Amino acid sequence: xxxxxxxxxxxxxxxxxxxxxxxxxxxxxxxxxxxxxxxxxxxxxxxxxxxxxxxxxxxxxxxxx
Length: 65
Description:
Elements: E1 2-3, H1 6-13, E2 29-34, E3 38-44, H2 52-60, E4 63-64
Parallel strand pairs: 3-4
Antiparallel strand pairs: 1-2, 2-3
């Protein structure tokens, strides 16, 4: 599943950013892999905007950056 809209990405990943003025969203794209269940995903975002804590969190929920 490819997600291009920033608000469901923020909601799914439980993350906020400051890329979009006056909103908690960040510019990115998300691909979620489903076979018989959730197997992981890939977040396409500028790595310079992601802290080490967020990298750890995303790795925990099986999301690659």
